[in-house]
Prior knowledge:
Blueprint: E1 5-6, H1 16-40, E2 43-50, H2 56-64, E3 72-75, H3 82-86, H4 88-93, E4 101-106, H5 115-119, H6 124-143, E5 146-154, H7 157-168, H8 179-186, H9 188-201, E6 209-213, H10 217-232, E7 249-253, E8 256-261, H11 263-281
Parallel strand pairs: 1-6, 2-4, 2-5, 3-4, 5-6
Antiparallel strand pairs: 7-8
Amino acid sequence: MKSIRRIQTPYSEINLHDYWNEKKRLQFELLQIQQDIVREGQKLVITFDGRDAAGKGATIKRFVENLMPKNYRVIELGIPTKQESKRWFLRYEKLMPEKGEIVFFDRSWYNRALIEPTMGYCSKAQYQYFMRKVLDWEHSLLDKDIQLVKFYLSVDSKTQLVRFNQRVNDPFKYWKLSPTDLQARKKWDTFTKYKEQMLAHTSSERSPWITVNSNSKIEARLTCMLHIVRLFSKNKFIPLTGQDVYKNYSIEIDGIPFNGLTAQQYAILNELTDINKTIKKKP
């Protein structure tokens, strides 16, 4: 059941000049993907979940910046009605893409697994029902030829606090900070418990969670776009940094093989092996 995919970014500490160049390169690929979706009548859903100030909306903004407007929708739902709260999945079924369309969710149906139980906005029974049924529901969407990508943007407490303070002091962004955001911050540990339960129990091979560290906004945006390009582009795309984080590496240490390593893991183990050999050679 558990198949969470934590994406290693090739954009660590990227400068702003390279960020702008890479963003344009990725956006061009995304436009080509959208055109394929329109031409072939495909349906794609991309969801973004995470804590407040994790960068969900800003990441979506960069995704759609150069897409054809009539062939995508961005969904950001407000407080559900009593009827919507009772028929949770139906609320989202109505918003699924038509043929040739991409739908982005700025927070998805997983509100019921995250902020709602954290803040007491749903009952224990509603939460448990959701957790039991959500994967079956998602698999039924896949059976209807809806392609689904689920991103979880992960931000730490210190970074969130900095972003909250920036919003308070920005005359153009103060409205983005709500009383609910501040209350949810006080329940950081409770939210963490529900997040861990969600990731552990609502990820499958057919519908995996893709987790991205979003402490750096620009790295997270590029990493999410790169993942979609890797999944759906018909062209081979090499990041501007030249790092192919999807390539697997192998190394043998003292006769024991280590396979399926990332470039970073391989580099660390290789360096440790070299150090160990040097130590052994010393008299």
